[in-house]
Amino acid sequence: MGFARWPTVSRSKRFPAFVAVCATLALSAASAAAQMPTVPIVQNGFGSTGMTLAVNYGSASGSTAYAIAAGWGPASARFQISGALGGVRPDTGSTWTGYGIRAAVPLYASKSDRFGVAAFGGVGGARHDTTSIVRVPFGIGAGYRFALGATRSVAAYAAPFFVVSRLSEKGARAQGDNTMRGSIAADLVLTRNIGITTGYEFGSKGDGASFASASGIFGAAVSYAFR
User: Fold this and answer.
1) Which residues, at least 6 apart from 159, have a Cβ–Cβ distance to it below 8 Å?
2) Is the pLDDT of residue 226 over 70?
3) What angle is formed at CA 37 by the lines to CA 201 and CA 177, rounded to 5 degrees?
4) Do the beta carbons of residue 180 and residue 203 sit within 8 Å?
């Protein structure tokens, strides 16, 4: 399937252009941290343009996480790239350094620009001393959005995805597992620059160790779009 072609329809029938840009920017940076353990993997169905920064928080059984993320997309909104750096703190022990990068490509958009589908893939993980965790998720995100007045909007979306995980420790045999998981999330655009994202990841826990394989993960992010 190729890139989405944005059809030309009357302004009254299309999702308001300004609100559309803000709605997609709300998640463009927030999703970057999702490759880190303890942050939910969420993905909407739309592309974004410009630069966005976000502060992310994640919580799972046995650990919490935080990260600073940045996302960017070209004016054509043909793709989106993002990256994040932060920390993952188990309930016992020291904080791990976490990271994540992701790319997403819109595949389909409805004539009204309200419904969209995008493919995504990324890599991320965490490291502490001689132990490291790597996660490689890839899947599809589908979302629906609607305007709340001239400058605000709400978007809801879901993403099924596959995750390849690997735990490595010096002097020990590496452990790995492959799991199928899913997530649901929502964006709320408050102003032309500020958006809020919340999400929840669920599915098979897998055989990986510690916080890398939590069965349920909650996350939230606040984003700022440079416009």
Assistant:
1) 41, 42, 43, 120, 139, 140, 141, 142, 182, 183, 185
2) yes
3) 85
4) yes
Neighbour count for residue 130 (Cβ, 10 Å): 10
Q: What would the pLDDT profile of 38-83 be if each residue is shown by its tens digit?
A: 999 999 998 888 899 999 999 998 899 999 999 999 998 899 999 9
What is the assigned CATH class of domain 17-225?
A: mainly beta
Whole-prediction pTM: 0.84
Per-position DSSP letters for the chain, written without gaps between them: --PPP-----TTTSPPHHHHHHHHHHHHTGGGGGGSTTS-----S----EEEEEEEEEEETTEEEEEEEEEEE-TT-S-EEEEEEEEEEESSSPPEEEEEEEEEEEEEE-TTSSEEEEEEEEEEEEEETTEEEEEEEEEEEEEEEEEETTTEEEEEEEEEEEEEEEEEETTS--EEEEEEEEEEEEEEE-SSSEEEEEEEEEE---S--GGGG-S-EEEEEEEEE--
- Span 160-187, pLDDT tens digits: 999 999 999 887 888 888 899 999 999 9
Domain boundaries, the chain: 17-225
Residue that is written with structure tokens 């909650």 in the block: 218
- For 175, residues 6+ apart whose C-beta sits below 8 A from its C-beta are 166, 167, 207, 208, 209
For range 207-219, the mean pLDDT: 68
